[in-house]
Amino acid sequence: MNKIDTTIVPDELSYLVEPSQKYKDYRFAEQLEWLSQNISKEELESLQIIAEKVRHQKDYVKVNRWLDRFKMTKYPIAADIYFLFGVMDALDIVFD
Description:
Layout (H helix, E strand, L loop, with lengths): L16 H6 L6 H10 L2 H17 L1 H11 L6 H15 L6
């Protein structure tokens, strides 16, 4: 397994790296549907805490600016973080 280069992630967004790796395989509708039906209460609460931090720190704007600089087609960690927000959105977790 290849190690993902996370050095491009700004320090203030580094808290998104670990969950982005945990949920990086949930990118398509059928995968997200499966997750929504099988996610544990603890996992859901963990994502809600992350979303609260994103809201509180107004990090969603920072993430989007960062994604403008580091395209997800070139940087796997950028894609993983992008899709982490897709997971939260699919689970109706408000992050912005």
